[in-house]
Amino acid sequence: MGDRLLMVGAGLSGAVIGRRLAEAGHEVTILDARSHVAGNCHTARDEETGVMVHVYGPHIFHTDDEGVWDYVNRHANFLPYKNRVKSTTQGQVFSLPINLHTINQFYGKTMRPEEARAFIAEQADKSITDPQSFEEQALAFVGRDLYEAFFKGYTEKQWGCSPTELPASILKRLPVRFNYDDNYFFHRFQGMPEEGYTAMVESILDHPNITVQLETRFDPAQAERWDHVFWSGPLDGFYGYDLGRLGYRTLDFEQFRAQGDWQGCAVMNYGDADVPQTRITEHKHFSPWEEHEGSVLYRETSRACGPDDIPYYPIRLVEEKALLSDYVERARAEKNVTFVGRLGTYRYLDMDVTIREAMTAAEAFLSARAEGQPMPAFVVDPS
């Protein structure tokens, strides 16, 4: 006889854990407060145009994890997709990430790779030997001109604070390429599910031992009704935010429509600080194998997340980390509750990492049950 298990949240974490444990013979119930599955990677066809819309902003699948790639391909037909981002800044359009074309165009030169490498090394601020902030990291990395054109204004808009207040670690994952490769990601496996992410998650949830209840909120007081609870909602939300709220940035999406091709690419960033949006996304371009007369676009702006907003990006500065450690300590004392996913561990996670961690959590649960050991509150340390 299997356990009665509850997944709070029908996003990637809840679906992947739920499916594995259902296959192992457990009885799984999945609750979600929203009217759909798939969480923030929910996709839906626009009725007017037929365009597949990424409702909570674009999600592009990219990974080097072959096991995760095999997993998603069992539940969806993935078609090739390369993310080629453009940026409008200082009156011109450039390609991102910064590559040899960007550098040559920006400086009006025709440098070869080694010439560009030496040139950028000259631009870099050599007085910064141990960069502490985002700004210092960028200046030490590419120098003031490229920093101000591509990073400064965009970062101020995205995070709502000066780049001098952000840790250097945020910039460490942004590449600069000394060739003409403008593929934003460098992972081996990249693509988009042909029928969208919601159809993929519905396939993962399609198992006789899984019951899904949408538009249903979880009351932590009901936790005793289940043998174990996997919580993928906000960590602080499990406790009713009684110690205070962990800081997030949220996004506002202003939809507009057009005929034909409005901007010629899927994602156009806006690097200038005096342009309110961080980017405009044109969703037909996320499905390049489809053709649509009409187009659906979103102007995206970032701001501080309020109590009624959807939390997108965890801030994780000094104040938040102190509050996080208080909540983590409290969570570790819970019996029969495991906190998972982006919100449950207060970490920015790409989709492939979310899936891998969910797979790991499910196996950890099965091992704990087999050995008669308690399941920990965290499979991955949030701090």
Quick synopsis:
By secondary structure, the chain is α/β, with parallel strands linked by helices.
Number of helical stretches of at least 4 residues = 11
Tell me about the largest β-sheet. 7 strands, mixed
Look at the structure and give the mean pLDDT.
95
Distance between the termini: 36 Å
Would you kindly provide a written description of the structure presented here, covering whatever features stand out?
With 383 residues, the chain is an alpha/beta fold. It contains eleven helices and 17 strands. It has helices spanning 12-23, 66-75, 100-107, 113-123, 134-142, 144-159, 197-204, 235-238, 318-332, 341-344, 351-371; strands spanning 4-8, 27-32, 43-45, 52-54, 61-63, 78-80, 85-89, 92-96, 189-193, 210-214, 228-231, 248-259, 267-270, 279-282, 294-304, 313-314, 337-339. It has a seven-stranded mixed sheet with strand order 8-7-13-14-15-12-16. Helix 1 links the parallel strand 1 and strand 2 (27-32). Helix 1 packs parallel to helix 11 (351-371) and helix 5 runs antiparallel to helix 6. The longest helix is centred in the C-terminal third of the chain and has 21 residues, at 351-371. The model has no long low-confidence stretch (mean pLDDT 95).
Summary tags:
single chain; 383 residues; alpha/beta; 7-stranded mixed β-sheet; 11 helices; 17 strands; 22% strand; globular
Q: What order do the helices and strands come in, and which of them pair?
A:
Blueprint lengths: L3 E5 L3 H12 L3 E6 L10 E3 L6 E3 L6 E3 L2 H10 L2 E3 L4 E5 L2 E5 L3 H8 L5 H11 L10 H9 L1 H16 L29 E5 L3 H8 L5 E5 L13 E4 L3 H4 L9 E12 L7 E4 L8 E4 L11 E11 L8 E2 L3 H15 L4 E3 L1 H4 L6 H21 L12
Parallel strand pairs: 1-2, 1-11, 2-10, 7-13, 11-17
Antiparallel strand pairs: 3-4, 5-9, 6-9, 7-8, 12-15, 12-16, 13-14, 14-15
Helix pairs in contact: 1-11, 5-6
